[in-house]
Amino acid sequence: MPDHWSGFSYLVTNLARFIRPDEVTFSGVNSTPPMLACLLAKRAYDFDFVYLNVAGGVQPAPSTIPISSSDPVLSEGSTAIFANEDFYDLCTRGGMDLCFLGAAQVDGRGRTNVSVIGDWHNPKVRLPGGGGGAVMLPTAQRAVTWRTEHSTRTMVETLDFVTAAGGLSGVVTPIAVFVKRDDRLALQSWHPDASLDEVRQRTGFDFVTTGAATTPHPSVDEVAALQALDPDGQFERDANVTLR
Amino acid sequence: MSTPKIISLDDMAARVPNGASLALGGSFLHRGPFAFVRELIRQRKTGLEIIKQSPGYDLDILCRAGCVAKARAGIVAMEGNFGLAPWYRQAVEHHQVVLEEHACMTLTAGLRAAAFGVPFQPVGGVHGSDLPSLNAWASVQDPYGSGKDVWVIPAIQPDIAVIHVNEANELGDARVYGTYNWDRIMSRAAKQVFIVAETLAPVRSFTDRPELTLIPSFMVQAVAVVPNGAWPGSCWPLYEVDYPAVAAYMDMDRELSLHMARAPERQERVDA
User: Fold this and answer.
1) How many CB pairs under 8 A join A and B?
2) Disruptive mutation site among B81, B92, B187, B242 for chain A (greatest number of A CBs within 10 Å)
3) Total-model pTM
4) What pLDDT, on the 0 to 100 scale, is given for residue B272?
5) What value of ipTM does the predicted structure carry?
6) d(CA A90, CA B169)
7) What is the topology classification, in CATH, of domain A7-237?
8) Hey, what domains does chain B have and what are their CATH numbers?
9) Which among B79, B95, B165 is the top mutation candidate for probing chain A, defined by the most A β-carbons within 10 Å of its own β-carbon?
């Protein structure tokens, strides 16, 4: 058990814990933590799942771990190229079990804003846009997002714009894991170095906490897998995730 | 081996009128027609409409040079550790560029409508998003009685799809190694297709394995051969992203001309 569980490791490990045996799981563009989570799960867990990614990879075995989560190296070792139209159509017809999607703001109903801070027509900050979100969030069996910052700016009562709706099944931040319960986000667990009070204070929406507890520490296998994926800590430094 | 279809990069860009709508192949920093985009800047094109599900460097540098009037896109970023596309962001925030915000698949639905020859195309999902009201998209109820509502996207027909590929032949057939991203549907939707190829390959290599051809020659109007033309992005499996070059491009204090002068299509001209 590590003395200190870094925000980066907490994020990647808890994203990986959403992955289930034999399911079809997808990681997309602009999504380094989920990419690492999928690769971690392949190494750390003693079950198989179908890993698809935005580079067209189907069960790939990339020789290097790229900075860009859409890098074509992510199709290395793949037996097929399952390109963009293929994986979107798979998702909309219900064949995507777990889909990782990005977000700038998340509300209590598990909707996301990836479009704009401020008014859409007069933006304070023009954000990247939702990419797959508006189509994948409501059609994937489960969709999970992450935020590297847990604050009332990112976990909000009211989104500046609804890019994607449909209800996230999970949200992971450096201090907490939320899951869907009765069409709302509910707290599942919090970082052992944080507290329920801190999560409440730093979250802009109300949530239920029934059954919530501290997050189980990473297993030996999870620690070893992340270490193997990021041996010199470059991804961790680049991600620059802090608990607070 | 010169045929009418094989032209220089300069001539290819010269065929693009101001105000044209261009679908650009690839995704983010990967296999984009970036040499072509830089040639548009050198020729001082204006009023362009850029259509791409996940643009980054291409849309950003065109915004930086003032070439763009409108962007239709699903997600715009430099990706990796670079985050937002700064000049694109500025152009939208200052109302210099009109954004038509899509999800990647709604843009694709519009391209599919054009490719299929129908005025609109259903798309899965989108329910609950603010995007439909923003774009005045309509929904239709299943006319066959399931009771389900489906969003429909109007056709999007680019004037020209410009696709960077690994190999083309003198006739214009083109193939891509690794993922072809959205390039197939772009090529079917557009009125014309321009190919920028890393290299020319023998026609015989295409007739040997025709199923590997992504875009058949009869749909292609022009081919330019530009080795390393996707720089500073990657072209699998030939070369990776040149991250130091992208970082230098992102330096707001550095002149764009310095970046442009380093481009491989300029180096070769200097060498020649």
Assistant:
1) 168
2) B81
3) 0.97
4) 44
5) 0.96
6) 33
7) Glutaconate Coenzyme A-transferase (3.40.1080)
8) 9-103+157-271 (3.40.1080.10)
9) B79
